Amino acid sequence: MASSAATRELQRDLENKANDLSKLQKDISKNHQIRKKYTIQLGENELVLKELDLLNEDANVYKLIGPVLVKQDMAEARANVKKRIEYISAELKRLDSTLQDLEEKQNSKKETIMKLQQKIQSLQAGKGKA
Amino acid sequence: MEQPIKGTVTSLSSLFPVEEAQKASKRVEETLSERHKQLNQLQDFTADNNYLINLVQQLPDQLHHDIMVPFGKAAFFPGRLIHTNEFLVLLGEGHYAERTAKQTIEILSRRGKALEVQVESVKALMQDLKAEASFFDATASEAAEGLVEIREDYVEEPSPKKASTIGIVKPELPISSEAEDVPRVEDDEYARILSRMAELEKEEEEAEIANREELGGAGSDVSSGHVILEGEMKSSELKEKCESSRFQSTEKFPDHWHVESSKATSKGKPCPKKKWNSQLSLFLSSGGDADAEMDMREARLRWFGHVLRRDTNAPVRKCERLAMDGFRRGRGRLKKYWGGCAITTYSHLLATISYCFKFLTGSDFFSVVLVLNRGSLGNNRSTYQGNCLPENLAYGKFNLTENAPTEPQVKEDVQAPVIAENKAAGRPIEPRFDSSKAFTGSIIEHTIDVNSREQSVSRNSKPVSRFKMQRK
């Protein structure tokens, strides 16, 4: 009886761990998506910066804010874009580190789950023999 | 040759499980389709960009354009485009810049270039994925078929006698699309054949010794001629059987023929192969070629003869029939197959023999050959007399059987200038022409020569194959 209670507990534990793992996996995939979006934005911003660098100093540059186009200084626009690029790359770095973290967690979770499964199997096998 | 198993045999499915390979190929296929979508999107972008560049180029051609202006989602109203050389270009991220048409085109072409780079990278990725997918697919299908991997180290042979090894190596060629246990069975069978061959060789040696003693005792040409004929008859019957089964001819040979011929070889009688060998050496030596080439030819012919004497279901014969679609030998291997080489050597041999024959007897060699062939097909146990000598008969037989593959259709319609007599009359065959004696003598002389050569080698009483002995 004691062994069956132990297996039940182990199974509950296993279920919890599996839930945690699936949550982690969801987080990871979400992070991946965000990261993808940011990389695309980074590429676009770099393109913009390149184009702005190619423009003459006296060219008219506008920024779309909501429904209106607001005229901007060339230098201001450039600074804005640069800042944005910096921000995005910082964000990408942060995302990378969190992703690494999450993956490590995922791996450790997987290992614990494997161990739990083995434990349950050995318990069941022992039960079968007895 | 003495180690029948040279390589290792592993089944492909044990290295790559079928389901795993299929799963992997499926996954690669999925990513490939994803990339394909991406590529299509990028190509759409490029097309759009090109269209836009064209439009921007054309717009400043006129001062104004009459257009339909979209109003909301559902409606248009007529309007007019003015200031056709002023563009507000979206640079990305909500930044716009006022540009002229020319400047706009510059921006757009730069964008087009960026797109092209992306397309190229995606294409390269797709190519990699495709290669991966095809590899996985091939592996999966091969593993499912039960293909085996046979590894054999290539050993460079220093002698020019590679020709003789071709036939030996052949049974070990990878045989795909067969169950994985088949090659092992073939190996066994092959080993058995080898041992049988060695056995026969040894018997032959013994018979040869006996023959020599007999020769020494009697010292007459007659007995040797008789012996030659006897042996040759047996061998030719056997060979004919081989040929007929090979070409699926309509003539059926009684089964006991086969039994008889095998009996003849297992008895102490002079083995047909022996004569065959000695004659071979005679012909080859008459060619006057370099030693190495002669040895090669001899080995090739010996192997050919050996193969022809086998049963049609023996692995060596089966190998011959194997259709190797798209099969190519590896780099550094010989390009020629032994079959083709053997045929060439035979035609060469035939020319030599017919020349010799004409020189010695003054009659045409081929007519005799063909007649002999006809007679032996019709009569079970008939021998020939008249203007045909035992030696000639022997040669004729020998040639007829070997030439059957090259000209099997001629033998039907040649008139027989020779009279056939049944052996039931029991008349012994004796050489009648003096001119033949010189020829006979030369054969015997050469036979002894070969004997002495082989004798010296065969002192180590182990049953060694003749291929080996020749190579030493």
Characterise this structure.
- The complex is a heterodimer of chains A (130) and B (472).
- Chain A is mainly alpha-helical and 130 residues long.
- Chain A is built from two helices and two strands; from the N terminus they run H-E-E-H.
- Chain A has helices spanning 2-54, 74-129; strands spanning 61-65, 68-72.
- Chain A has a two-stranded antiparallel sheet.
- In chain A, helix 1 runs antiparallel to helix 2.
- Chain A is rod-shaped, with a radius of gyration of 27 Å.
- In chain B, 63% of the residues lie in helices and 8% in strands.
- In chain B, the strands form four sheets. Chain B has a two-stranded antiparallel ribbon with strand order 1-6.
- Chain B starts with 7 loop residues before the first strand and ends with a helix.
- The A-B interface holds A 41, 44-45, 47-48, 50-52, 55, 59-65, 69, 72, 77, 81, 84 and B 88, 91-99, 107, 110-111, 114.
What level of helicity do the residues of chain A show? over 70%
Structural class of chain B: mainly alpha
Name the strands of the widest sheet of chain B in spatial order: 1-6
**What is the overall shape of chain A?**
rod-shaped
Strand content of chain A: 5-15%
What's the count of strands of chain B? 8
> What is the quaternary state of this protein?
heterodimer
Tell me the strand order in the biggest sheet of chain A. Answer: 1-2
Overall 3D form of chain B = elongated
Mean pLDDT of chain A: 89
Number of helical stretches of at least 4 residues of chain B: 15
Instruction: Give the H and E element order of chain A.
Output: HEEH
Q: Radius of gyration of chain B, rounded?
A: 39 Å
What does the largest sheet of chain B look like?
2 strands, antiparallel
**Cα end-to-end separation of chain A:** 12 Å
Alpha-carbon distance between the two ends of chain B? 14 Å
Tally of contiguous helical segments of chain A: 2
Cα radius of gyration of chain A in angstroms? 27 Å
Keywords (chain B): Nucleus
Organism (chain B): Anisodus tanguticus
Main location (chain B): nucleus
Subcellular location (chain B): Nucleus
